[in-house]
Amino acid sequence: MNEPLPTLREEVVAIVKIIPEGRLMTYGQIAALAGHPRAARIVGGIAHYGDPKLPWQRVVNKKGYLANGYPGGRVGHQQALASEGIEAIDFRVPIERLIWWPSKS
DNA sequence: CGAGTGACCGCAA
DNA sequence: ATTGCGGCCACTC
User: Fold this and answer.
1) A42 within 8 A of A36, measured Cβ to Cβ
2) Which of A11, A14, A39, A98 could disulfide-pair with A24, CB 3.0 to 4.6 Å?
3) Of the CATH numbers 1.10.10.10, 3.40.50.12710, 3.40.190.10, 3.40.50.300, which one belongs to the domain with range A8-104?
């Protein structure tokens, strides 16, 4: 069996799955960890077409603003974050202190 | 099968 | 400081 090449989708999905609760990551960051620093767009595409069971709610853009394409809109996203203890102010979260780096634990 | 879209990011002028 | 554009891969129709 040949080893399944770790595609961006597989890597992104794996990273999103390991994001601890109460922590946030940016699309560009996940894309960079997957080996494609300029493929932030693809992460968004995967989020839309990928597994809805993944904690995409912990994934936001680098500005800290919530995703407009999230099921339910930014409101649904904000409530999902609030459910994990993350306070979203005006559809924006203090990403600067909630950002999480897998290599830094 | 071909083409377009997608929840983004960074840089240039 | 702001605005506009390109770039990347995967998925769906």
Assistant:
1) yes
2) A98
3) 1.10.10.10
